[in-house]
Amino acid sequence: MSPPNILIVMTDHQRGDTALPEHASITPHLDRFAEEGVNFTNTYCPSPHCCPSRATFFSGLYPSRHGVWNNISNRQALSQGLNAGVRLWSEDLAEAGYNLHYTGKWHVSVEESPRDRGWSEHLVTAAKGAHHGVEWDHYRELARRPEVTERGEGEILRPGYGPFRLYGAGERQGDHDEQVCAEALALIPELAAGGEPWGLYVGFIGPHDPYVVPQRYLDLYDLADVPLPASYHDDLADKPRIYQRMRDMRFGQLSEREVREGIRHFWAYCTYLDDLFGRILQALEATGQADNTLVLFTSDHADYAGEHGLFAKGIPCFRGAYHVPAVMRWPAGIRNPGRRIDEFASEADFAPTFLDVAGVRAERSFTGASLLPFLQNSSPAGWRDAIHTQCNGVELYYTQRSVMTRDFKYVFNGFDQDELYDLRSDPHELHNLADDPAYEEVKRELCGKMWHFAYEEDDTAINPYITVGLAPYGPAEAFRLRGE
Questions:
Q1: Structure confidence by residue, pLDDT tens digits, 219-261
Q2: 147-188: pLDDT as tens digits
Q3: Does 194 share its domain with 315?
Q4: pTM for this entry
Q5: Are residues 370 and 456 in the same domain?
Q6: How many CB atoms lie within 10 A of CB 426?
Q7: Residue 392 lies in a domain
Q8: Which residues are 7's β-sheet partners?
Q9: How many CA atoms lie within 13 A of 292 on its CB side?
Q10: CATH number of the domain that 290 lies in?
Q11: For the chain, what is the total number of helices (H) and then of strands (E)?
Q12: In the beta sheet, which residues pair with residue 341?
């Protein structure tokens, strides 16, 4: 069999649970797609932020190795691009003869664009030279306007910053995602007419906040059918203070009805994106090349969508912002389609997977591992038993690392109190057990796992100075755990 074409559709902020057919979000194209492929239902990003997660997707490495920690497009950036020597899977495939094309959001580096890494570019955003955020002139102009003192529907007041709009209704003709979809629809038949294997990356910016969608998608959902999340009433009293501050200062302004409206708009946004995805699949099927095309539907990270009273993403380490959709279809290469894989998968797994299915051998190590055995209906030996995260903050800086097993989740918050959850009895992460002496040995074991991963990934968050070495069990646990 010839190497497959590779078509990637990546959304921005989409929750992993929306890719499950039983979820209340209406996504008929994704549902059918999952029936024809494999749904990796337990897939996680390394950081609750676009840039580090996208850099992981393209490199197969975690932030400690690829060097992207937060938004590379503004002046709070800890780096503006990838570490020297980091290679992306696109470079390998381009050298192997793949005809690669890129349309949509990049957000991996402002020092380079996709063309520097093996791609032909079309409509590319958040690329070389991009700047996000605002400068002082914006606030000078804001100060000249009457201060907004009354909230509008779905608005959050922020004196001195300007109000934030969480959701609304509006048409999207001609916007970024419509243009990106149109580019993809034009490219697919052209690529299929060529004689070489091809790759196409389609990067949407939805369902990123604000959740603004055409009314016809909102009309598919009855607000009475939208429940509050099970964790909504968590008062966050046993969580880090910044979690409480985010809710109390900002999202806590929203009424329960507005929270449910926010969720409704988020679901409707996913339905809108599903329509775009369906058009892309239809274009692929019209070429006759769908059988030997590996299609991946995924997202860079997710959104709290009302969990714990929060929206968007950021330093809270709750599952909602880390759990992403990952559904793959490849009729010629997947055995027994329609399966769900519940093993822990990572965004770092896609790079080695793409190289594996293309028959390209890379002479370098990855944080991730190939998912091809799962596609072939086998279980690889020694597969990971835990998921790790690495976060140094977004535009405000923090040191946060976590490790999650099937039973427990431990979060080291260098800036505040740690977190420990017994996921067997507390899947919604409501009860922090980090200070419960009954769980001390569990905490120590998880610290050992956390530090061993840090050792393997050359994570430098190991400074022993008295004011910063604040983990309950330090990096030596990495070796004590294994008797080294």
A1: 999 999 999 999 999 999 999 999 999 999 999 999 999 999 9
A2: 999 999 999 999 999 999 999 999 988 899 999 999 999 999
A3: yes
A4: 0.96
A5: no
A6: 15
A7: no
A8: 200, 295
A9: 12
A10: 3.40.720.10
A11: 13, 19
A12: 40
Domain span at 461 = 405-480
CATH code for the domain of 421: 3.30.1120
pLDDT band at 484 (very low <50, low <70, confident <90, very high): confident
Give buried/exposed letters for 205-231 (b at 16+ CB in 10 A, else e): bbbbbbbbbbeebbeebeeeebeebeb
Residue 29 is given by DSSP the state: H
Q: Which residue has the tokens 């402002």?
A: 110
Q: Are residues 29 and 173 in the same domain?
A: yes
Which pLDDT score is estimated for 5?
A: 98
Classify the phi-psi angles of 163: left when phi > 0, otherwise alpha if psi is within -120 to 50, otherwise beta: beta
Q: What is the 3-state secondary structure (H, E, C) of 377-392?
A: CCCCCCCCCCEEEEEE
pLDDT of residue 301: 97
* pLDDT (average), residues 399-412: 98
Rounded to whole angstroms, the Cα distance separating 449 from 453 reads 6
Interhelix angle for 256-286 vs 176-192, to 10°? 20
Instruction: Tell me the three state secondary structure of residue 75.
Output: coil
